[in-house]
Amino acid sequence: SHAGTGLRIGIVCGKFNGGITTRLLTSSLDVLLASGVNAKDVVIAWVPGAFEVPIAAKRFAQSGFDAVITLGAVIRGDTGHYDVVAGECARGVQDVQIETGVPVVFGVLTTNTIDQALERSLPDATNKGRESAETALEMVSVLKGIASLS
Ligand code: INI
C-alpha cells in the first residue's frame, strides 16, 4: 500500500507505562513506514502521561501535520485517578480533532490490569498502535474523499 506517501504524521506517546507505550509505538511505525510514509515525516513527541497527550496532539494538528496518533497506557490497577486521567485524555483528544479538523487517533489503552495492556500491545495484528496507524491513514483518505466532493 502507498496510502501514506507524502503524509506528515505526528505521534504523541506517553512515557507513563513506557514499556507498554513503546510496544504501541513500534507497531505504529511499522504500519506507517510500510504504507510509504517517509521516516523523516514522522515526528514523535514524548509526554509525561496520558493527561498531557491532548495538548501535544493539538500542537501537531496546528502545525500542518496530516494526522496525529496518540499512544498511551492508563492502567486502573496503578492509579486512584484512573477515570479522570483516562476520561480527560479521551475527551481532550476528541476535542482536538473536532476543533482542528485534523484526524487525531485515540491509541491510548485503558485497561484494568497490566496483563490486559500487554495483551493489547503484542507484536501482531491486534496491537493497538498498529490499529491506530491504520486508522490515521484511513481517516486522512476519508476526509480527503469528502473534501473532493465539494
Ligand atoms: N498516566 C498514564 O499515562 N497512565 C497511567 O496509568 C497514569 N496513572 O496511573 O496515574 C498516568 N498518570 C499521570 C498523568 O497522565 C499525568 O502525567 C500527571 O497527572 C501529571 O499531569
Features:
5 helices, binds 5-nitro-6-ribityl-amino-2,4(1H,3H)-pyrimidinedione, alpha/beta, single chain, 4-stranded parallel β-sheet, 150 residues
Low-confidence stretches: none
SSE order, one letter for each helix or strand: EHEHEHEHH
Total DSSP helices: 5
The helical percent reads 40-55%
Q: Report the end-to-end length measured between terminal Cα atoms.
A: 26 Å
Bound molecules: 5-nitro-6-ribityl-amino-2,4(1H,3H)-pyrimidinedione
What is the 3D form? globular
Adjacency order of strands in the biggest sheet: 2-1-3-4
SS content category: alpha/beta
Q: What does the largest sheet look like?
A: 4 strands, parallel
Rg measurement, Å: 15 Å
How many β-strand stretches? 4
Mean pLDDT: 96
Percentage of β-strand residues: 15-25%
Describe the protein in words.
The chain is 47% helix and 19% strand. It has 150 residues and is α/β, with parallel strands linked by helices. A four-stranded parallel sheet has the order 2-1-3-4, with helices on both faces. Helix 1 links the parallel strand 1 and strand 2. Helix 1 crosses helix 5 and helix 2 runs parallel beside helix 3. The longest helix is centred in the last third of the chain and has 20 residues. The radius of gyration is 15 Å and the shape is globular. The mean pLDDT is 96. The chain binds 5-nitro-6-ribityl-amino-2,4(1H,3H)-pyrimidinedione. The site of 5-nitro-6-ribityl-amino-2,4(1H,3H)-pyrimidinedione has 15 residues, from strand 3.
